[in-house]
Amino acid sequence: MAEQPPYHPRDAIASTTNAVLLNGAAGVLISGVQNTLAKENRGLFGLFTKTGGTIAMFAAVGGTYAFIKDASANLRETDDPWNAALGGFFGGALLGIRTGRIPYVLGFGAGLATLVASFDAGGNHWRGSKWREGYVDDVARREAIRSTRRRAYEETIEEIGEGRGIYGPGYAERRAARLKEKYGVEVPLEHEKPYAY
């Protein structure tokens, strides 16, 4: 089995806030559709008074899923589909609570857990799996790019030379010595200020 990349902790509060806002916005959209399709005229505030439970349910399910998934990943220090399954179970259980029956709570929880865990196991993408293709951790990939692409400062100066905003240590002294040797001009190492206070 392939070695898992090192685990990087997740910010559960930030992802929960993002999920609540995003799913709440989706809930507002669905609530607006429900309000529009109603036979009686509910007015503008019917979006919140008559079908506002849809907004709350969307926000609660999304927030619960995101928090449980990230908290589980942080506690277990692994990134695998079981985290998504736990988040999906608790989010689905919230959907079932509206009915008030335990079989619905367990059924919705198990259904959503299966759905999101299989999606996560498939690589969180509709087209492929990060588990079968060899997952490359994004932080480790960026560090590898930095270490292979970074060049020594002295090597850069040696290759392209000094000037044009690129100056190595001791440039002012070398410049003053070069001008003194070539033209016989004394150049002060510290520049005078062009203005006075």
From TrEMBL:
GO terms for cellular component: mitochondrial inner membrane; respiratory chain complex I. It is a multi-pass membrane protein. The chain crosses the membrane at residues 12-33, 45-68, 102-122. It comes from Orbilia oligospora (Nematode-trapping fungus). Signal peptide: none annotated. It is found in: Mitochondrion inner membrane. This is Uncharacterized protein. Keywords: Membrane, Mitochondrion, Mitochondrion inner membrane, Transmembrane, Transmembrane helix. It comes from the Eukaryota.
